[in-house]
Design brief:
The protein is α+β, with helices and mostly antiparallel strands and 138 residues long. The protein has one helix and six strands, in the order ββαββββ. The longest helix is centred in the middle third of the chain and has 20 residues, at 64-83.
């Protein structure tokens, strides 16, 4: 039941309605500003994201945990489209170049293979120009 106008997680949420953690920061431009585009036939999802000032780690740079969050959300959404609801069992990230706050990133997630209930995915985080590889993950 709602307490003080707040509904506890899971209550009042329709079955199958999936929530993305990046929506947790309120205020336009403060946290995760993103749009996702799915190509179901290719089992691929492209996320266009711009990290806001609330995601700062070192001065002027995006916190690695924020990068991990958008990678996890991109891969999770890709897997959701391919096989349905999933949870992350393992996430391995190689951070290759710092991400300036406000930079526009292209995060590409791909379902590489399926083994029973498992979905194996890969991800690349590039600058909008496509030249700088900021991170890769599996």
């Amino acid at each position: 039941a709602a307490v003080g106008g707040v509904t506890p997680p899971g209550e009042g949420t329709p079955p199958g309605d999936t929530r993305l953690f990046p929506r947790a920061i309120e205020g336009d431009g403060n946290g995760f500003e993103y749009a996702m585009f799915l190509n179901a036939a290719e089992r691929r999802l492209l996320c266009l994201v711009q990290p806001g000032p609330y995601l700062e780690g070192h001065p002027g740079l995006t916190h690695g945990g924020a990068i991990a969050t958008i990678i996890d959300s991109t891969l999770g959404t890709c897997a959701l489209a391919v096989v349905g609801p999933v949870v992350t069992a393992n996430l391995s990230i190689d951070y290759l170049a710092p991400v300036p706050l406000g930079a526009v990133l292209l995060v590409e997630g791909r379902a590489e293979r399926l083994e029973g209930r498992k979905v194996f995915l890969s991800c690349q985080v590039r600058g909008a120009d496509g030249d700088t590889l900021h991170a890769r993950a599996t």
